[in-house]
Structures are given as C-alpha cells and as structure tokens.
C-alpha cells in the first residue's frame, strides 16, 4: 500500500487558486504582447496582425537613442557591480569567520532593503551638488547609481557559488607551489566563472529595468528605454509602447534563462 | 637533528582560539623523521596528528616551536614555498581540470618548460597506472582512481616529503588493502620520505618503518611497529595498538607482585603490568611458577580462541590460544587452571 503523505496539492480549491494566480500574473502580459502586433493605433481594439509598431519603434530616433543609452549604462553598471561583488564575495567567504560578518552581509545588501525612492531622492540631492561643483553632466551619474544598486544582485549568486566550493582546493593549489595570485587565476576564478556570469546577467537585467532611480538621477536628454516609455505613456498611448515592452521582455527572458542555466546545480 | 632528518619538529605548540576557550591541539611536540622513511602518525581523532601534518605542510602556523625541513627552518614559510606535497583526505582534485592537467599542475606553477611538464606527467601517470584515463575529467573516476591521481599529482614535483592525510579512509576494505601495498611500492620506488596520518592501527603496523603514537596533543611513543607492539611505553600506547591485558602490580621481593600475591618477572618499571593475550599460556596448576586462575568463558573465532580467566583476587585476564587439532580445547568454563606468561612478554608500564 502506498504511503499517504500530506500534500498541499490535495487541499480543496488548490487547482482553482493556482489557475487564478497564473491568469492574474500572465494575462496582462499576454495582452500586451498580443496588442503589440495590432494593425491599428488602438491598444484596446484589435484591427488585424501587423509588425507596423515594431518597424515604427525601430525607426524612431528617440527609441534608438534610449535603447543605446540603456545598453551602455547596463553594460558599465553590470561590469562594475560584478567586479565589486566578486571582490566582496571573496572577502566574505574565503577566510575564517570573523566578528561582524552578518553586519557586513547586511551592509552589502543594503540596496535590497532601503526603499528605492529614498535612494533616488538621496542620489538626486547628492549628485546635484556634485553637478554644480564639477559641471559634469554625463552618463557617469547613471552608471554610478546603477552600479550601486546592482551590487547585491551580482553578489548573491557569486557568494552562493563560493560557499559551495571546497576551500581545500585552494589549499591544495598552494601546496602545489601556486602563489596566491596563481591560485586565484588557475583555481578560484575558473571554478567561480559560472557564478560571476550569472551575477553579471542578473545585474544587467536589473539595470536595464530600472525606472525610479534613473528618473531622478538622469540629466536632460538622458532617457533610458524605461524612462522614455514612461514619458510616452503620459501622452498618447500607441501600440509602439507595447512593441518596445515586448522586445524588452524578450531580452530579459533570454538573460534570465541564461542565469538559471548557469546557477542550476550540476547533477 | 642531523642531516639525515627530513622533518624535524622542535617543541611545537599549536593552540586554537583564545583565552579560556583556547584548545591546545599540540602540546610541546618534538620529533625527527628520517630521510626515506615511511613514518606514520597514529592516534584517535582529535589527538593532533592532522594538525601536526598541516603545520609541516604550512597550512597552519605553530603557536610556538620550530619546524625544519631538510635542516632548513620553514616555520614561517607559506605552503607554496615548502618542498612538501600533500595527499588530502578528500583528494581535493581540481574539478575543472583533466587527470593530466591535475598531475601537471605543480610543475606548471613552478614554470617548468612544456616538454618537461609533459614528460614528467607521463611518467607519473605510468607510475600510478593511469595513462589510459589521462584525458578524463576527474569527476568520471572511481574513488580508487581519484586516489591514484592525487598521489601522482603530489609526487610529480618530486617533493622532499610527501604528506598523506588519512588517504585511504574513504576506500572500501579490499581497495584499501590494495592501496596499502601500492603506497609501500611507490615509497620504495621514489625513495621519498612519506609521513602518513591514520587512526587505523593495523594500517600503521603493516606499512610503517616507524610509528609516532599520539594522544591528547602529545607524542606518546616513537618506535618501530614491532617495538610499539611488544614494548609499549604506557597504558595508552599498549591499549591503542592491538589487544592487551592490564594488571595492577606492586613491587615484590624479586619482581612484580600481582594483586593475587603471585610474583612475576617483568621488564620495565611502573604500577601496571601489560601482557598480550597471545603471550599468556594456560598450563597445569602444578607447573612451577604457574598462577592459579579460573576459566570464565571460552570464545571461539576460527583458528583461535579467547580464554577469559579470573585470578584469585578477581582480576580479569584474557589468553589467546590456538585451537588444538581436533578442535577440543581440553578446558571448560569453571575449570581451575594455571597461567604462565611467555618469557620477556610481560612489561611494566606507566599508568
């Protein structure tokens, strides 16, 4: 006789609730994607299939600029955040436990806990004074702000990977005449690479997606794709926004799939 | 300390933690390991044997004392600058490298030229009979094969001393026996000094030239397997290696006086007499010098039997006797018998 175990799936209403949740989660997105292929200018009335809004968006100079800016900021921010996060992860795991370790973890993950709007206002004021003092108006502010809030997203997968790596391997490398740098270069780094790649991808997606901090920090004419879309929505809403959203969604899904493949436990 | 010593430890102390919670893992250990020797550090877990090994390798720094390799003071040198390699209990093979790359790792780190790395790697792979699996990933290997790769990797740079940290403990019994023979062969062929750590007394007795028995952070006795077995220095060593009898004694007129009043001749000095069960004979009660005893129980195991005896003062004693042809022991529980120790087999030791 089969053992009867408790299972949440056996409770009454389980299937109904699960289905309802999935509908709530995905119906709006499906609608958005469907209407990006609408032939007419309405986001509510279907007027036949067309790629019109994709070509429209593709040819729009403002969209091109915003996309390029988004990618540049995300590339720099994820590179900087991943480098810093890797160093932080090495510093917090590749050593004996130390006093204040938990406090350090909390400090590194600060951007996950402080309300984003608070950080945004703080950065607005902080950067404003720097802008006045230096006169510099470039993308550096956005890159710096994005790097900062991307660090915990890059840090967590890298730390998880390091915690799963046996420190005896580094001891063995030292025993086999590797200097500390050679040990890092030939043992720690290659084994850590999937974690670093995963962290970088997550950071990239988080940066690409940011609205609040970007909206507060950007100077005039520095719209990223999300802030451009936000600006568009204040005026006439056309399926062009749907088309851009769908493209952004596709890119994000691609990167997150890669992230999950990299962090999946081997065997 | 002479130039004949591969490893010398002088008054080595190692404490972990600070203040009241500090633990002394090693308490004033001094030791010389000779060149070309198969030396075993033997003791129960927590006795400090692995800590001593890690100090020799350079993974830890001693809290006090000096460590010399080949006469050179290496106490503060990092592991990558010591001519010593280690076979780890977990093998610690690099999972992202092939068997060949693992074996060649140390040579590559030393900056040897490519031809030399390849040549030496091939010879090491041949030495441990792993040529055919040279291009496999290490995860695809069995435990025994990983063990061989770990050995080849540690031997490839021709260290002055090879340290082995319980390398056989993860293998099953049959494989362990094979690897014991294999290790002995490798040590003879390479002539490298082996320092082997184990808690398995049988392993230590069969493989070692000399054994250092450790307990509670101290080195109890350093001697050949034969000496350790036949002339243990104290109760711990006698009890840890093989089976033995302990009998309290007092100083008699001419020898040691047992609790039952009988006097026996024994070597050494101390309040405890130890004698191995196979050195205890069961004889006729009227034989000169025989000690009167009663048979408690007989326990058979194959070719031998254990006779549990009780002396007149209640002290327990075990004799190990071969079963006579025909299998009839000729004694039974409750019999009064005589007991005699083989000449020179009884020793007095410290408690």
Structural features, described:
Chain A: It comes from Thetidibacter halocola. Chain A: The chain crosses the membrane at residues 12-37, 71-91, 112-133, 139-158, 187-208, 243-262. Chain A: It is a multi-pass membrane protein. The complex is a heterodimer of chains A (267) and B (351). With 267 residues, chain A is mainly alpha-helical. Chain A has one domain (61-263): Orthogonal Bundle (MetI-like fold), CATH 1.10.3720. Chain A is 74% helix and 0% strand. In chain A, helix 3 (61-93) crosses helix 11 (225-234), helix 7 packs across helix 9 (180-209) and helix 8 (168-175) runs antiparallel to helix 9 (180-209). Chain B is α+β, with helices and mostly antiparallel strands and 351 residues long. Chain B has eight helices and 21 strands. Chain B has helices at residues 49-57, 99-109, 114-127, 143-155, 173-190, 201-207, 225-230, 235-240; strands at 5-16, 23-34, 38-42, 64-69, 72-73, 84-87, 161-165, 193-198, 210-215, 218-223, 245-252, 255-258, 263-264, 267-268, 272-275, 280-283, 291-301, 304-311, 316-322, 336-341, 347-349. Chain B has a six-stranded mixed sheet with strand order 6-7-8-3-9-10, with helices on both faces. In chain B, strand 17 and strand 18 (304-311) form a beta hairpin. In chain B, helix 2 (99-109) crosses helix 3 (114-127) and helix 2 (99-109) packs parallel to helix 4 (143-155). The longest helix of chain B has 18 residues, at 173-190. Chain B is elongated and about 80 Å long. The model of chain B has no long low-confidence stretch (mean pLDDT 90). Chains A and B meet through helix 8 and helix 9 of A and strand 6 and helix 2 of B.
């Amino acid at each position: 006789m089969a053992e009867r175990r408790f299972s949440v799936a056996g409770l009454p209403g389980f299937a109904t609730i699960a289905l309802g949740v999935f509908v709530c989660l995905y119906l709006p997105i499906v609608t958005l994607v469907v209407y990006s292929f609408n032939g007419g200018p309405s986001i509510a009335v279907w007027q036949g299939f067309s790629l019109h809004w994709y070509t429209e968006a593709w040819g729009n100079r403002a969209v091109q600029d915003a996309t390029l800016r988004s990618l540049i900021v995300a590339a720099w921010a994820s590179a900087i955040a991943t480098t810093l996060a890797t160093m932080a992860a090495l510093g917090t795991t590749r050593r004996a436990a130390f006093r204040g370790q938990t406090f350090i973890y909390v400090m590194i993950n600060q951007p996950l806990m402080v309300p984003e709007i608070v950080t945004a206002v703080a950065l607005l004021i902080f950067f404003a004074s720097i802008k006045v003092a230096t006169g510099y108006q470039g993308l550096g502010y956005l890159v710096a702000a994005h790097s900062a809030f991307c660090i915990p997203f890059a840090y967590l997968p890298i730390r998880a990977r390091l915690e799963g790596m046996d420190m005896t391997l580094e001891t063995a490398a030292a025993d086999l005449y590797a200097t500390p740098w050679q040990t890092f270069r030939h043992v720690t780094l290659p084994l850590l690479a999937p974690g670093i790649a995963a962290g970088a991808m997550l950071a990239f997606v988080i940066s690409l997606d940011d609205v609040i901090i970007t909206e507060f920090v950007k100077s005039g004419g520095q719209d990223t794709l999300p802030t451009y879309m936000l600006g568009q929505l204040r005026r006439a809403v056309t399926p062009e926004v749907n088309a851009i959203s769908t493209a952004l969604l596709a890119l994000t899904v691609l990167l997150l799939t890669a992230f999950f493949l990299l962090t999946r436990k081997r065997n | 300390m002479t130039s004949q010593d591969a490893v010398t430890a002088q008054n080595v102390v190692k404490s972990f933690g600070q203040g009241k919670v500090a633990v002394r893992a090693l308490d004033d250990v001094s030791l010389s390991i000779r060149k070309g020797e198969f030396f075993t550090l033997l003791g129960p877990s927590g006795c400090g044997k692995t800590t001593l090994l890690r100090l020799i390798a350079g993974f830890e720094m001693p809290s006090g004392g000096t460590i010399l390799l080949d006469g050179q003071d290496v106490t503060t040198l990092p592991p990558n600058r010591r001519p010593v390699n280690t076979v780890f209990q977990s093998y610690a093979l690099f999972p992202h490298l092939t068997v060949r790359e693992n074996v060649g790792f140390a040579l590559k780190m030393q900056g040897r030229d490519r031809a030399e790395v390849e040549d030496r790697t091939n010879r090491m792979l041949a030495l441990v009979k792993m040529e055919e699996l040279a291009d496999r990933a290490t995860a695809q290997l069995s435990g025994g094969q990983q063990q061989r790769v770990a050995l080849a990797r540690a031997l490839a740079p021709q260290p002055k001393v090879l340290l082995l940290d319980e390398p056989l403990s993860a293998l099953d019994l049959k494989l362990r026996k094979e690897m014991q023979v294999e290790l002995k062969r490798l040590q003879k062929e390479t002539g490298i000094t082996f320092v082997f750590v184990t808690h398995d007394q049988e392993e230590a007795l069969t493989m070692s030239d000399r054994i250092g028995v450790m307990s509670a952070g101290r080195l109890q006795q350093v001697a050949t397997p034969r000496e350790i077995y036949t002339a243990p220095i104290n109760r711990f060593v006698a009890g840890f290696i093989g089976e033995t009898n302990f009998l309290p004694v007092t100083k008699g007129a001419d020898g040691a006086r047992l609790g039952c009043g009988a006097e026996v001749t024994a070597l050494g000095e101390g309040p405890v007499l130890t004698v191995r069960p196979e050195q205890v004979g069961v004889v006729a009660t009227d034989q000169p010098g025989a000690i009167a005893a009663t048979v408690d129980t007989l326990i058979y195991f194959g070719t031998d039997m254990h006779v549990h005896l009780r002396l007149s003062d209640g002290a327990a004693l075990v004799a190990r006797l071969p079963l006579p042809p025909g299998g009839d022991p000729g004694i039974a529980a409750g019999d009064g018998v005589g007991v005699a120790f083989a000449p020179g087999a009884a020793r007095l030791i410290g408690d």
